[in-house]
Amino acid sequence: MKDSPLEFPGHHPVKAVGLHTPEFKEQMIAVVHQEVGEPAVMEIRERLSKDHRYLSLTITVHVANRDQLDAIYRNMHATGLLMFAL
Q1: Whole-model pTM?
Q2: Which of 44, 68, 72, 75 is most buried as measured by Cβ atoms within 10 A of its Cβ?
Q3: Which domain holds residue 69?
Q4: Do residues 6 and 75 touch, judged by C-beta distance below 8 A?
């Protein structure tokens, strides 16, 4: 995509929101590690909803290209645990 404002290779935040369960967090991080490897994960931030029912993860990763970033989102959705992603 030449018109994309995203630059590759580069660091990109991946935001995932789901129920606040250990499985959700573990699976989202596992998906990212599977796609880019552990050293490429730069930062993981967590934020709970007011009632602690939902967890928002922002995982900043170094990706080589758009296909790699798309694969992360696709595989997160495939877990069935993701409510939405940004």
Answers
A1: 0.90
A2: 72
A3: 16-85
A4: no
